[in-house]
Specification:
Elements (H helix, E strand, L loop, with lengths): L7 E9 L5 H9 L17 E7 L2 E7 L9 H15 L3 E7 L6 H9 L6 E7 L6 H14 L4 E4 L8 H11 L17 H16 L9 E9 L5 E9 L2 H8 L4 H18 L3 E9 L7 H7 L7
Parallel strand pairs: 1-3, 1-4, 4-5, 5-6, 8-9
Antiparallel strand pairs: 2-3, 7-8
Helix pairs in contact: 6-8
The structure holds guanosine-5'-triphosphate and magnesium ion.
The site of guanosine-5'-triphosphate has 24 residues, from helix 1.
């Protein structure tokens, strides 16, 4: 699809509490997985763009970390990054988990919107989980607390209502040339996307605090003559005891994570992949500015 005669293009940031379904919605709008999803909170750590085309419009969708009351340094970096993403966008999509309703987290998110001058749109997500009548009250309550141009009720998971929302966005973004080639679906470098996929598999498999105390980086990426790629990744954890958990009995856990990640990375890059995972203990990595640079986050001073 070539750029049309009267192109439109705009940046849309999706913000919301952790686990509201922002990343799921970005993937649904793009039509391919460009950002990772898990049932745990605080999955997304940095800004990531997914790119979709609707009619004459190119929609640049910015996935952001969840907004909540942060305590640790990494959390503070994630939350301030999320608000910064909202301030840089043409349109701000505010996601609320309809099942949870307007709880304390959603309330403080709505309060924070007063400082966001951009056009805002309310998205009540996960409508598959609740009854229709409850939705109307929820939409009304949210509209009383912030100034929304429109409200949508969707299920990012089933796709219900997503097409309507996408058409609305296509009309709402300003006229202007497309920012990306028409076939590009994300601005994330492949090595970063590959590291994120491995982090998703880690999140899905490991329990309690461990996922939050680990990070994944792609250490090397070699294209081979036979068309395959050799990828080495490092999983950083904080303590030796965590390294043992990631490895699992006889290396079973890391092997399973590696197999799942390899399959999905190969699918995304459409090349055979040889994936090598290494687990390193780096005490205090979440206080190391270099790790933040790798994740695309600013390093908060304290
Ligand atoms: N039932 C239902 N579940 C959903 C829907 N959208 C997302 N989910 C689930 O909600 C969980 C969180 O989804 P994510 O897309 O990772 O949420 P997020 O807002 O990006 O979360 P953070 O990155 O942690 O801020 C996952 O288990 C999704 O499958 C929906 O419309 N209906
Ligand atoms: Mg996310």
């Amino acid at each position: 699809m070539a750029e049309p005669e009267r192109p439109r293009c705009g940046f849309i940031a999706l913000i919301g509490a952790p686990n509201a379904g922002k990343s799921t919605l970005i993937n649904a709008l793009v039509g391919t997985k460009v950002t990772i999803v898990s049932h745990k909170v605080q999955t997304t750590r940095a800004l990531l763009r997914g790119i979709a085309i609707e009619g004459e419009a190119q929609l640049v969708l910015i996935d952001t970390p969840g907004i909540f009351a942060p305590k640790r340094r990494l959390e503070r970096a994630m939350v301030s990054t999320a608000w910064a993403g909202a301030h840089d966008a043409d349109i701000v999509g505010v996601l609320i988990d309809a099942k949870r309703g307007i709880d304390a987290e959603a309330q403080s998110l709505l309060d924070g919107l007063a400082a966001v001058p951009q056009r805002k749109v309310l998205i009540l997500n996960k409508v598959d989980l609740i009854e229709k009548p409850a939705l109307l009250g929820l939409a009304q309550a949210a509209n009383e607390r912030a100034d929304f141009s429109a409200s949508f009720m969707i299920s990012a998971l089933s796709g219900d209502g997503v097409a309507d929302f996408k058409r609305w966005l296509a009309d709402a973004v300003p006229p202007g040339p497309w920012h990306y080639p028409e076939d590009q679906i994300t601005d994330a470098p492949l090595r970063q996307l590959a590291a994120e996929i491995t982090r998703e598999k880690l999140y899905l498999r490991l329990h309690q605090e461990l996922p939050y105390q680990s990070t994944v980086e792609t250490a090397s990426w070699q294209e081979r003559k036979d068309g395959s790629v050799r990828i080495e990744q490092t999983i950083f954890v904080e303590r030796e005891s965590q390294r043992k958990i990631v490895l699992g009995k006889g290396g079973q856990t890391i092997k399973a994570i590696g197999a799942e990640a390899r399959r999905e990375i190969a699918e995304v890059i459409e090349q055979p992949v040889h994936l090598f995972l290494f687990v390193k203990v780096r005490e205090g990595w979440s206080d190391d500015p270099e790790r933040y640079r790798e994740m695309g986050l600013e390093f908060p001073k304290e």
